[in-house]
């Protein structure tokens, strides 16, 4: 199990210490990390999870000199720390209107954290349904955090009579999310947009025994603001 202090996103804090120095990292009055580093370049990775807003980094040198720097940070739930890996694998039988189909499905997802960037990949395999997704999440500092994901799916609907042809359709869907700190007390937690193209079918809506699934293009917007006092 991942330790609590490594759950959630936190950026890599780097710099150069002129001597043995104590580095304290805080946000909104809470200390996230405090440690002593030797003279020279340093990189701090194991700090507690952060929220939207500025991080304060205080460097206290051995002679008592203090340097304070501010790092603007924005985060989304899809962001991972540098070199962190998340993966998910599942095998099961799809249930349609309370009944299980006789074919298995396989689901796989993989996320990898780079410096201020996380890449995402996922896929679903089923006898009559296949989908793939690619995405990326990026921390832009004071400009906020953004994620983009593109999905494509191919659905095959069973013959309704022995002589009828199978119905095959494919479509695309993509989503965009943005988060930022507007002021010290106001966060734009989530600005989400999703586009679903014609003939795109989510796996949870897919029923291979249906004649077909015809849907029009859909667009959805969502905004969440939070205010702290």
Helix-strand pattern: EEEEEEEEEEEEEE
Overall number of domains? 2
Class of secondary structure makeup: mainly beta
Radius of gyration: 23 Å
Major β-sheet annotation: 8 strands, antiparallel
Shape: elongated
Pfam families: Usher
GO molecular function, one term: fimbrial usher porin activity
InterPro entries: Fimb_usher
GO cellular component, one term: cell outer membrane
Structure keywords:
229 residues, mainly beta, Immunoglobulin-like, eight-stranded antiparallel β-sheet, four-stranded antiparallel β-sheet, 14 strands, 0% helix, Fimbrial usher protein, Fimb_usher, fimbrial usher porin activity
How would you describe what is shown here?
It is a single chain. This protein has 229 residues and is mainly beta. It contains no helices and 14 strands. The chain folds into two domains: 9-73, Sandwich (Immunoglobulin-like), CATH 2.60.40.3110; 84-227, no CATH class. The strands form three sheets. It has an eight-stranded antiparallel β-sheet, with no helix packed on it. A four-stranded antiparallel β-sheet has the order 3-2-5-6, with no helix packed on it. The radius of gyration is 23 Å and the shape is elongated. The mean pLDDT is 84. Pfam families: Usher. InterPro entries: Fimb_usher.
Question: Which helices and strands occur, and which strands form pairs?
Answer:
Elements: E1 13-17, E2 21-27, E3 30-37, E4 40-44, E5 53-60, E6 66-73, E7 85-96, E8 99-114, E9 117-126, E10 129-139, E11 145-157, E12 167-181, E13 186-196, E14 218-227
Antiparallel strand pairs: 1-4, 2-3, 2-5, 5-6, 7-8, 8-9, 9-10, 10-11, 11-12, 12-13, 13-14
InterPro entries: Fimb_usher
GO biological process, one term: pilus assembly
GO cellular component, one term: cell outer membrane
